[in-house]
Amino acid sequence: MKNRWIVIWSLLGGFFSLILSACSSAPVQQSADDMSSNVQVESEMAQVPTPSMTASQTSASLGNSKVKDEQRLGTKWGDEISSSVKPVNLKRLSSTPIAESQIRYAEKDFSGRSINSISLAAGKVSFSVQDERGRNLVLYRDGQQYFLSANEGQSYVLHYTNNSAQTFEVVASVDGLDVLNGQRASRYNSGYVLWPYSHLDIEGFRKSNSAVASFTFSKPKDSYAAHSASGSINNTGVIGTVIYELNAPRDKVKPTSQYAPPPNAFPAD
């Protein structure tokens, strides 16, 4: 697979995360509509009760999948936030993603098991949606689907934590749009890179190499997707994440800690 340019996103607090820029090799064309079509399939499947589902479980699943027009939300182009970038070079280990998740959001009370974060890549990556103060917004898990009760006017951040020594790439979309270039989302687009034992906060749609526009919940008609030539109001209300593993030396990045590492009795081993 061809090398991809990667852009480092310098975050507040001394943490460094990476993003693969849109100037990399062309994405696979077959996935241009993958995000939106997959959401529709999941919604339809959720309405078909399985033999193992109880009456109450079936009712809850049907209730989550049905969102009234007045409950629908999108994400608008919010306030500008400083975020500078610069290029480096890394490659994906495989063209196939190792994990994927989607969150449906709306201004309604969803049901299901409440959780703080979603476990991805066999628990190596944790994904949560946070408010501007860094507090996790409650997610609801219903089978294999995830839902978020949102409020119009609230800004939010996509927060990823790498709990492993591996390096990952995070391809993210909001309302069917790629958060890096504002084009129709594809699983094969370039994305943000997450270093070992570090975290990544995606705060908004990228405007330039030095700034992003914050994610802010809004009515669908006011969303970025509704006013973008690449977007569609029909795709508002969904957040997508795809994870790839990157080819990067594992011994170059150490966990950040306020304590000194323990002494090594056998340093030559």
Entry summary:
Strands 3, 7, 8, 11, 15, 16 and 17 form a 7-stranded antiparallel sheet that branches. Strands 1-2-14-12-18-4 form a 6-stranded antiparallel barrel.
Structure in words:
The chain has 269 residues and is mainly beta. The chain has one domain (4-22, 34-47, 72-247). The chain has two helices and 18 strands. It has helices at 34-46, 55-65, and strands at residues 4-10, 16-20, 74-82, 85-92, 99-106, 113-115, 118-120, 125-130, 139-142, 145-149, 155-162, 168-174, 177-178, 192-194, 199-202, 204-208, 211-218, 238-247. The strands form two sheets. Strands 3, 7, 8, 11, 15, 16 and 17 form a seven-stranded antiparallel β-sheet that branches. Mean pLDDT is 78; it is low at 1-53.
Uncertain stretches: 1-53
The whole-angstrom Rg is 19 Å
Oligomer: single chain
- How many domains in all? 1
Taken as a percent bin, the fraction of beta residues is: 35-45%
Q: How many helix segments? A: 2
